[in-house]
Structures are given as structure tokens and as C-alpha cells.
Amino acid sequence: MIRNDSSLTNNEKKFLLDKLQKAFDKHKIGDNSVEKQQCNNCQNWHQATQYCEFCIRKYLENNFRNWTSENEEIDKLIQECQQKTISPQCVIEWINYDQFENIEYLTEGGCATIYTAMWKDGSYDKLNPEKQILERFGRQSVVLKKLNNSNSSNVHWFQEVTLSFTLDNTFQTLAVCYGLTKDSSTHDYMLVLQYYDNDLRHFLKDNYHFLTLFQKYKIISVIAYSLSKIHSQNIIHRDLHSGNILYHAHTTRWYISDLGLSGPADKPLNSIYGNLPYVAPEVYCGQIYTTKSDIYSVGILMWEVITGETPYGDHEHDSDLAFSIASGYRPTISENIPLEYATLMKKCWDANPDNRPDANIILDEILLLVKSLYEEMNRQQEPTIQSKNFKSKIKKFFKSKNFKLKIINFFKSSSTKNEDKQVIKDIQSNENKGSKIYKIQTSKVYTLNFSIQPRNSTDEEQQAFDFEISDEMEQQYLKSIGVGNSNKSC
Question: Which of UniProt's keywords are assigned here (predicted)?
Fold first, then answer.
């Protein structure tokens, strides 16, 4: 298609083909159906087109002697990751702290402190086939995430971080992490992350009134797709909330972050770690995290995206809120929320984990809603739709075997500017939003273990909740935490 496009110059065609091949090469590694080529340098049969993955790994192995974290376990972890590298842009490495300049404090986040910085040499970018060396990108902005109280005797958190480099080799759905460094003054370890422009919570705060319904569906579909890939590897996120969904403005793509970082290194064994409104009620009641616990978090995210509001934003994140959620309290569903969307959302936050759909079902349901938007767009016959055979194209598109993949790829590549031109208008309740300013909460450690069975509330109970807790619930709550009629502190 690109080669035959007469509107493009030869240089433009070469540029586009190069970009496409660069992106596609990552997906070819490990695909046994891909035709292999023999490398002229190492004689191995490689799957990538623009480079030999074996030459990259050999280059990194030869470089082992030129760096050290001064910790044997961490060195071993990084070396193992490098020997699974699939692309020049997917190398995890140890980075000396003096490589960073203009380090500026950004915010506190759960068990970490976040900084922005400039990486002087930048990450690896491409393999030079003549010199057989990896060349770097050059100066680039990054985020440094200092893991508070991390130390050389406890690398459990880093073992979990390596999932981001082995699990995500193919799917590219997780926030990009370049490697590890150590704060020269506090000696805490710091993750070196790609710079992202925003998280979902702040993005909604700044842009909600400009979002179409299509764009909101897009956000949820990407979250569901990413989570399906994580769950397919038997991995549970454990701390999925809007502060961990990151937005990259240049590519207009969303990424899940903080995979596996389920709390600080010194978290007590009988405690839970998370952003309270997103934590599944069964976890409050002593049950373990499961993939269905992540699905509960998706349900809360669906409400947050469709309303633009912070879940339980006017309540303190304490044992009172946790007990109310375990007793069936959920965010209010307004009449302006599309019925099919609301039904799916309620299934996701059902008190019984067995009643919750998996991530693939959520994705399928959201894509059906996207399909209905396209069909509605066709029925409206807006002036922006010029093609006479648009209807037949729409039918053909959604009947194709790989329409789901087409939608996902479109979501990954479409720009916000183009989406703003969608003729389907959003169903919003802006007039009801008021001017509330809610405090944005982060993840932290809670000691909760209610001796009750999580349940769904009736419609009448949901209306009455709003923190008007009955005497019966009060006594049940006090009994569940093992105290008398004195107070409610956990």
C-alpha cells in the first residue's frame, strides 16, 4: 500500500516502511510461523528483519564486565533479562547515577518518590550492523522512581519488576522501564522509566469535558486488552488504579504501570497494599488477590472514565469506607450512563468474584459498544461521511475475522485530534458534576481483615448508603474487627 502510494516521495515511503518494520520486528521474535534469516555475522537464524537478536544479546554479554551494581543478585537479574532481549529498544540495564542530571522532585506515590531527570546518553536505540555495537538515542527525559526503603538485602521487588521485561516483550502494553540505578545519597534503588505526560486520573481531570464517548470506550478497551495479556501469563497486577494508567502524548497510547509492585519491601505480612476504592472487597475480608480482584478494579475504572469523577472522592480512605464497600456500597450510576456499559460495569464490581467477567470478555463487550457507535454514525449520515459505500465498508469491517485486532491496532495508532472529530456526540452529565474538588489518594498499606462475607447491596440500600450506616451495620462492623461499642479504629 505504501509502496504504491503516488502521493508519497521515495524518502517518505522509506521512512514509513522503516518505522513499520521497526515496530513489527518486536512481534516477530518467538513467532514460529515467521520465516528466519541467517545472520552473516554470527550465523544464527534470526527472526527480526532489521537486526539480529542474537548479535544484540552477544554484544550485551560481552559488555557484562564493564558494569556492576555492586550487588551480585541484581547483576544476575539484569544479565538474565539482557539475554532475553528482543530489540535494541527493549534492553534493561544498570545505569550509573551520574548519568542523570537536572533531577527534580515530582511527587510522592505510594511507597515511592518520583523525580524527573535528563539521561545524558539515553537508552539503546539501534544496532549498528557494520560495527556490531548498540548505539544510544542521546539525551532524553526520563522518570526516576525511588523505591523507599529498598536495600541490597531485599531484591524481591526487583524480581517482580523483571516481569515488565519478560512478559511484555511481545505485547508492549506495560510502561517502559529502562533499568535500575541507585540514589548516591540515600542508597535507595530507583527504576528508570520512560517519561509519560500524564496518568489517567489527572488526564480526566484536565480533559474530561472534551472527551467523546468513543474516546472513553477506547481507554477502557486498552486497559482490558493490556490486562488480558497480563492475566494470560498468570500474573496479577494487585494495584490497578487510575494513577497507574499512564498516557504518552506523542503516541497517544495508554500503558499500565507498577506491575507486581504490591507494596513496600517492609510491608507487614498481614496487611494489604493498594488504593482503597479500587481494592476488591474480598481482599478486605482476608481472601487472597486473584485475577478477578483486578477485574473489580476495572469496574471502578469504568465508572471513573465514564463520569470523570474520583471514586469515593468525598470520603476518607479508611476502615469505614472499606467496610461499606464490603457491605455493597458502590459509586452511584447515573441515568446518563449507557445501559450496556453500566451493566458490564456492575458485573465487574460484583461482590462475588465468580460473577465477574474476565478481561477478554470485557474487551469483547466494549468493542461491541464501539461497533454500535460506528453503526449509529452511519445512520446519522453526517456531512463528514463522504463515501457512498460507507455502509457496506462498515458491515464488511465488522464481519471480518480479525475485526477485534483491527480495532485494537486502530486504538493504538489513532490520534486524539482525529478522535475529537467523531460525529457521535458524548452522553455526558456535565451539568450535574458541580464544582467539587476531591483529594486524589494514592496507594498505601492497610491492616484490614473483616470477618464478613462481601455482598451486593439492594437498590434501596445503595440509595441509603451515602454513609448513613444503620445501627445493625455498626454492630456488625465492630464485631468484625473484634472491638466493643467503643470506636471503629483498625
Answer: ATP-binding, Kinase, Nucleotide-binding, Transferase
